[in-house]
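Moderator note: this is an archived Q&A kept for reference. The question asked for a predicted structure of one protein chain; the sequence and the answer are reproduced below.
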Amino acid sequence: MRALVYDPDNGLRVAEVPMPEPGPGEVLVQVEACGICGSDRQLVRGEGAPFGTSYPVVLGHEIAGRVARLGEGVSGFAPGDAIVVHPFVPCGQCAACARGEEHLCPHQGVIGFTRPGGDAEYVAVPAQNVLRRPEGLDPAEAAILVDAYATPYRAMVSAGAAEEEAVLVLGTGGLGLAAVQIAKALGVPQVAVLSRREDAGALALVCGADEFVTLGDDPRQAGRRLRRMAKGGLGLALDTSGFADGVAFALDVLRPGGKLATVAMPAGDMPVSFAKLARKGAALVGSFGSRREDVEALLQMAAEGRIQPDVVAGRRLSLDEAPDAIQNPFFGRDIIVFDAP
């Protein structure tokens, strides 16, 4: 079968690889769609990979498809079932897993990094990572729910976004645009967006943003606009971009006692003013990955029309177009689409 393969010596390429077989406790998935994530791009740029990544690796961890075959001991699914795949495979035995924080498992595997991913016609995955997909939900839109949406959802739920009157989202990539929709779906009355790109404003507003500012705006005027919107300051800023100037701006507009949460993983160190954090009594919170129940909640939200992944879904590409797309990002989330089963 054909797959998108990467290794540091031979680069990124579409290649013929062996057809996977589902082992005990696994499901063979015929892939319908797989999103291209920023972490795929980071890997190809040599900016780091999850611990345990082995090369050559078939990329792709935002997977939607249909069950093709069941491995030994798997029940509850049948060939043809519409599904998505949660990409994180926790060990189930460590202290983090015992606390119910399996998304922070230090021993977890990641589909598309530590085991073959979904940028291929077929992929074998653990049955515990397979979730039913509402039949009416487009596979390309469903695929990006498992990470582009699930990552900011986990961060916002952990940071208590639903209790805030105003939230600022930093960044207008796939994660940032998804975060705007999620904040609104969680009931946040006012959501602002900060971007480096002036041309991202229209899409941010379509996603539900109430205010849009750029790093090119006068920071004092932009700050005053957001404080007026938030009646004195924002309770939560979610960083999806990892730019130091954006984080500095967010710290300025946070209200006393506010939170700065980040899901960004920039290649270099990020300078943060600890003096400003201390004076404001603000909290700095990191968030990684997601839980299976996060994806379940997002599938329900999408089925009910509370979030609109079609707005975040960017270009729909063939497998042959994927290498160029990984090196040349687009607004929203690029998605590899395969022929329907």
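Archived answer notes: The domain at 150-286 is CATH 3.40.50.720 (Rossmann fold).
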